[in-house]
Amino acid sequence: TAMLHKILKEKEPEYLGVCFDVSRDTFRQKRFKEYKIQRPVMPDGLSGQIPLIKKVIFAYGISAVEKEGFEADDIIATLTKKALDQGFAVEIISSDKDMLQLIGDNVDVYSPYQDKGFTYNAQAVKERFGVGPKNIPDIIALMGDAVDNLPGVPGVGEKTAVELIQKFGSVENLLDNIDKVDKEKIKQSIIAHTD
């Protein structure tokens, strides 16, 4: 509620929607059974607050959007595309780095938890990660993501992932040019973990 008040006061949005996860059973688990498997179940104290949070949202006249089989992130991406198609500028409120891949013309991501909040645009993503927004999935694919239980390539951290994507432009191009990877140990690890 405090975050909602802050956004309404500071951002004064013309339109606002809140997206929720419905359950852990999404299409991602069907493709990768280990996806988010280590993440603990939402504590009862928090899960019991969700209906109250929704009451507050509805009291403000704000739409809540959720869909079985999809994460809130998927809904945010879909709504972002639809809003852009309608000519709207979009500001996503999230601290999830996965959202940074959506940044582009008329799309920013506001991370409310960094000090007093921080707005990422394409330039800010490039300054923070060394690559543009469209390459965030490439970086995550290489270095993995412990929060989502995505394994990545052993021996490849953020710094190496950024260097590889800066050099090759994408994971696909990296794999097509694997013989051009300078460090033999990294090259062999990528080959062994291509899947």
Spatially, the strands of the biggest sheet line up as 3-4-5
How large is the radius of gyration? Answer: 19 Å
Low-confidence stretches: none
How would a crystallographer describe the biggest sheet? 3 strands, mixed
- Overall shape: it is globular
Kindly state the percentage of residues in helix: 40-55%
- Calculate the mean pLDDT score and round it: 88
Which H/E pattern describes the elements? HEHHHEHEEEHHHHH
How many β-strand stretches? 5
**Which percent range describes the beta-strand content?**
5-15%
Q: What is the number of helical segments per DSSP (H or I, 4+ residues)?
A: 10
Quote the distance from N terminus to C terminus.
42 Å
Question: Which class best fits the helix and strand makeup?
Answer: mainly alpha
